[in-house]
Amino acid sequence: MDDPVCPLCGRPIPPEARQSLHHLVPKLKGGKGGPVVLLHQICHNEIHATLTEAELARDYATVAALRAHPRLEKFIRWIAKRPPGFHSKTPGRRRKR
After folding, report:
1. How far is CA 15 from CA 3, 61, 85, in A?
2. For the whole model, what pTM was predicted?
3. Would you call 38 helix, strand, or coil by DSSP?
4. Where's the HNH domain (predicted)?
5. Domain locations in the chain?
6. Pick from 18, 56, 71, 96: most CB atoms within 10 A?
């Protein structure tokens, strides 16, 4: 069976890779029980380091919108060159909710 693919960076997510589910609409903004996507943990961290919960709910509730964000576009180009199980600390503080 093939590994799932991270919809943000397009790399496979092997079983040993750090991974998590991302609510496309944040739970705090009405997304509880809504659609989720499986991401590499590093990709998920970058989303939350880049965007507030309000911005996610208002403007970035789809994978296509996330991929089009300028900082996330740059991150995706960088992470695409890393192996699928790669993880490191996300630079910068987590944004306020």
Report:
1. 7, 26, 9
2. 0.91
3. strand
4. 6-49
5. 1-88
6. 56
